[in-house]
Amino acid sequence: MKVRDCMTDAAVSVGAGESAAYCARLMARYNVGCLPVLASGRVQGIVTDRDLVVRCVAAERDASRLPVGQIMTCRVATVKPEDDVLRAVHLMQREQIRRLPVVQGGKLVGMISLADLFAEDDCTMEAADCLCEISKNIKRI
To answer: pTM higher than 0.70 for the full model?
Structure first.
């Protein structure tokens, strides 16, 4: 199965100059845990709900004035629509992430997540293995 067969086409994104507060409102409105950060349609970074908490809220920074570009993760793993789903799974495992931007010709065309993989009958075992691998490194309190 290819990434294009199970990815979400309509990816919501944000610009690096937008505020962290605006980013958080977008995440809440669209019920997503991360947003790709774009410049001219190209992925420049990614901001997660964890980035918002750790780099903004916990750091006691003003979310309404803090640009997303200052809290985003700049090193972003991506896949292509024509990649095999197993490549996406292995990349998620290696990078310890649950979501990947899907890029074609340098431009964002969608997102693929563990939830997308679980929704596909052909991918549930791979998705479960991926989640187990990612969860191994979670620190318990």
So the answer is: yes
Query: If you average pLDDT over every residue of the chain, what do you get?
Result: 88
CATH (domain of 37): 3.10.580.10
How far apart CA 66 and CA 10 sit, in angstroms, is: 26
pLDDT tens track for 33-50: 999 999 988 999 999 999
What kind and span of H or E run contains 128? helix 124-135
The tally of domains found in the chain comes to 1
18 within some domain: yes
Tokens in use for 114?
């563990």
Residue type, 118: F
- Judge whether 96 lies within some domain: yes
- Give the C-alpha distances (Å, rounded to integers) separating 123 from 3, 74, 118, 131: 11, 29, 6, 12
Q: Residue 87: inside a domain, yes or no? A: yes
Q: What is the DSSP string of 99-124?
A: EEEEEETTEEEEEEEHHHHHTSGGGH
| Contact partners, residue 110, CB within 8 Å, separation at least 6 | 4, 7, 8, 9, 10, 11, 81, 101, 102
CB 55 within 8 A of CB 71: yes
